[in-house]
Amino acid sequence: MKLYKLLSFSFLIATLTSCTFTENIYINDNGAGKFSVDMDGSSLMAMAGDQIGSQMGADAKKDIDSTFTFKQLFDAKKDSIAKLSPETQKELKKIENFVVHTKMSNEKKEFLMTFSTDFKNVNELQDILQTMSTLQKLDKGGSSTSPFGSNFGNNNSKLSYNYDGKKFTRKAIIEKQKAEEKAADPNQDMSKMVFASSSYILKYHFPKKIKKVSNPNALFSEDRKTVTIQYPFTDYMENPDKLNFDVEFEK
């Protein structure tokens, strides 16, 4: 399956059903690590796999297990990218090494997609999700290029991460003007309906035991090195600052 067709299909999955999005961060002793966002759209495959299969044509008869980087996609669309502003090209450069891994099986009623990258310091990830919305500019329709749909990452906030070995912070600052413009968008109610039953999970893995977390709903792994917090996806989109929290570690 061609990369562009696969991304378009993932958009269909993300916009037609309740999905679970999991934002994972793995931090090693030296501060380096891995970042990923996982989307599980298997519920739609379970409900309407046959109908989706008919839209996919011959591709529906076989399982898909595909891995590619955004750099491959950008190389295929280099002529279009050359026409974009220098600022937009710089934004796309940030995510060219991200890997997209897709698994789809109509028989197993499975649809999983992971968007991931390695980092040397978690501070490198500032606004990385917002950069995803820049992918829309590669497509005149503005919807099918982003693996998780056109709205993903575009939640009118500036997101930053910080880790110094003693404390970890996830902080989103809302950009009021953009939030007001989005609230006035006539398509806003439709977006709320689409994602009303979806979830957004933060799952962060640290090299040290956690002493405390500022969010009272946080769950810990048995070794207290992993914290998991689940939110409605509407919180991620409409109230991104609700996902802010601090983690303190044992000495």
Automatic annotation (TrEMBL):
Q: Which PROSITE patterns match?
A: PROKAR_LIPOPROTEIN (PS51257)
Highest taxon listed in the record's lineage = Bacteria
Q: Per its record, how is this protein called by name?
A: Lipoprotein
